[in-house]
Amino acid sequence: MNVTIAILGLALLILVHEAGHFFTARAVGMSPRRFYLGFPPALLKVRRKGIEYGVGAIPLGGYVKIPGMHRPAPSDLDVHLGRAREEAPALAGPIERIKRLVAEGEMVEARAQLPELERAVRAAELSPAASKSAERGLTELRDALGTDAYWRQKTWRKVAVIFAGPGTNLLFAILLIAIVYMLGVPSEAGRRVDRVDASSPAQAAGLRPGDEIVAVNGTNAAGFDELSQLIRSSEGKPIVVTVRRGDDMIRLPPERTQMSSDGRWVFGFRPEVEYRRYGPLESVKLAGIESWRVTEAIGSSLGRIVTGSGRDEISSPVGIVDASSQVIDEGGFRLYLRILAFISLSLAILNLLPLLPLDGGHIAFSLIEGVRGRAVGREVYERVSAIGIALVLILFFVGLSNDIGGRTD
């Protein structure tokens, strides 16, 4: 159940990211063609007002198909219509006319020639594979030549649409953390026991949830900090814990403390924690401050990855789901919301890296094109994208190896 909740949480963050792209694109005049959670093939899909909504079979992300992300190139027709041209030589004329117009930058005239090519493709006797490829190519070309194509938009519109994805993740993270502050954050731990760990010295001694620990080895403890110090100073020797249980004072039998994974001597219980709640405005302010601190920490972590010292800090979706499910089991709903917020921040920051096909790469190229006054060539996009995809895959497999093989202590 916890794993399912963790997966749904990650899916929600992806949905929030893609929704940012989707609604911003519509707001600035670009009409998205598809809005998917996951990648095709589609498990479910429905079309509403010209937009296809669906759930893909590959749950590694999601996407919004914005028309005409790249300036059309003559090679596009060769890729999608090459096989159809071989099977139906009569298509050569309309294909070559559009290729020439696209090469000369006459996009309005090229769009005007599209109906003729579409009629010719429908009239041609083509194999199913050639027909499918041609139809896909015509759709892509129609989108790229349309007035709402991404590549034709002003720089600010393009940057706004792309930044909206990570920007929405950032705002969502602040919202989640603000909710945690409004629900209440731990202020201090008390002496009353909330939970006793299984197979621990505390369980062996008979400590129960609801007991109030008042002394260790006869030394009174005013609060949890003093109590924790008394237990740590035992260094593995038996301790006698005195508790208040209802109206009775009870001395539990002596038990040796045990060493935790982080090298501390512990008895094996969790104290009750008092929570402090904040108002909405103060919660948003505190959430913004905490988000900035986490962002700085993530930036430092990325810097260590570049130098090679932060390899063990990388995680894949497998590790994210595993960690989230453990948090649900051990830390409760508040901690899960906080972790979900930190993951949302991580998605925002990673997506803003200036690498194609990440959002940061598209923003960088949009700015470059705005300064140059013309589009960057398709071959440049493809080469830079190949490098970016390779780096992203390397990070993914390093994270996966960490999650499967375990991190070093």
Write the topology of this structure.
Elements: H1 2-27, E1 34-48, E2 51-65, H2 74-87, H3 92-103, H4 107-123, H5 128-145, H6 155-183, E3 185-196, H7 201-205, E4 212-216, E5 219-220, H8 224-232, E6 238-239, E7 241-245, E8 248-251, E9 255-256, E10 258-259, E11 265-266, E12 269-276, H9 280-307, H10 317-351, H11 359-372, H12 378-405
Antiparallel strand pairs: 1-2, 3-12, 4-5, 4-7, 6-9, 7-8, 10-11
- Give me the side-by-side strand order of the main sheet: 5-4-7-8
Our count of helices gives 12
Query: Based on helices, strands and strand pairing, what is the structural class?
Result: alpha+beta
Spatial separation of the terminal alpha carbons: 29 Å
Sheet-strand content, in percent, reads 15-25%
Q: Which stretches are poorly predicted, pLDDT < 50 over at least 5 residues?
A: 316-325
Write a structural description.
- There is one protein chain.
- It contains twelve helices and twelve strands.
- The protein is 57% helix and 18% strand.
- The model is unreliable at 316-325 (pLDDT under 50).
- The two termini are 29 Å apart.
- Among the domains are: 74-145, no CATH class; 189-273, PDZ domain (Pdz3 Domain); 280-405, no CATH class.
- The protein is an alpha+beta fold and 409 residues long.
